[in-house]
Batch of 2 targets.
Target 1
Amino acid sequence: MMATIADPSLDAQSTPIQRQAFPRFLFSMPWWLLVVLLAGVVLIGLVQSDEDYSRTFNYVRDGIGVTLLVTGVGYPIALVIGLLVGAIRAYPPKPGNGLTAFLFSILRLIVYQLATLYVSVVRGLPMIVNLLIVGFVIVPAARDFLSTNLGIAIPQRIFLETGIIALAVAYGAFLSETFRAGIQSIEKGQLEAARSLGMTYGQVMSLIVLPQAVRRILPPLGNDFIAMIKDSSLVAFLAVQDVTYLARQWASNQFQFVEAYFILAMIYLTLTITGSLLVRWIERYMEIPER
């Protein structure tokens, strides 16, 4: 019996037909999102039908507004801190010629070293340690200083404001490195050309450097925004009554750990996925079309 020799051309012709047998949407469909949506539908059903889930959700949902407030107020403050510190650290000081330029360079050196110290210390400590130091050491010290020396009375128990300040100060150090990298990515030729036209440092930064740098660093800025939503749960250690604090309190008092933490996880997933979609839309909106 003669052996059959396979024709390689037949395999080459059959490959496209076999590939077409699988619909393209099977590979482009966001299956992970469907799983999350299914879990959300299950949770909604449990909240509507199960008394334990309903009571747990009604107790925990009061902290959603606090979580959104902490992130919504803290992130813009962190952006301002990060921009200022990043701009300071983007261009290391150099000795100037003349007495005035030399004194100005000394001042810039001091500010640069202080900014570097702030970034190094905050980035070198865990986030929870930063929050505890700011919340229980720095903020009370500043409150006592204002009350003693300036006569400005600040309430002793301002947990929400303390949590916002602590989170903003901690994230300001991380965002400063993002801004520094974005500013330094702009070609020096553009800066030299702008200065040769008589533009001031402020005009160069606001009109030339920052518009380009923001477009380049928008993805990492968005990632930090999503990370801040998750790290806002750490303000629960400062007695801020966000969703994490209320979920922990309910679980420990009612011993309903499954209900409390399942609801807590779905709340954070909803916030982070919504934030990711918003950041993606902003990236597409600010994207420069190719020519």
Target 2
Amino acid sequence: MKKPLSFALIGRSGCGKGTQAELLMKHFGNLFYVSTGNLLRELAKLDTLAGKSAKEIMHKGDLIPDFMIIGLWMKELNLNLKVDQGVLFDGAFRRLIEAQEADEYFNFLDRKGTLFPILIDISREEAYDRLTKRRICKKCGKIFPWVGEFKKLEKCDKCGGELQHRADDNPDAINNRLAYFDKEVLEVLEYYKKDNRLITVNGEQTVEKVFEDILKAVKAK
């Protein structure tokens, strides 16, 4: 049986990973979705010691420790991933150890060579502009990037909920996240470049053109 493809969407905050994740899910049909951001937000809602700590760290714009991130998505995969499914990581991997652990995990699953990292590349300036303007649904938590047709929405197109700015999209937190990308995530990109796995697309295009470029690159691989 042909092994399903898996993808990891990487990029500066605000690059549109969530939007492209939705399009990939629809196109490939049988992908198990793992959103680092969603998992962390769910953790932060819990009345637990870990939940409280995660909430405080996220509000400052700092990053949750590697062991917590890896533990969260590994639990999701261990309990839910089916034999015929690929995986779509939204917002991973942010540190070299996470990328390495993911490769080890995929080797364990006998899925070596099936995970493709995709960099949605936007400048730091573009990322900052988008992050200060993007919105989240107060009801269902869907994130709406400040690009294209999403700018015109007044209500959530999924549940009709009210749109508001995210609490962690304040200037200090945004700058912390963007600085972290330049410091740590670039090392992850170099790791993937060494064996010619990294797919890079220009994220400062329309949503449709970004997705078109992703599909072309995946097919070429």
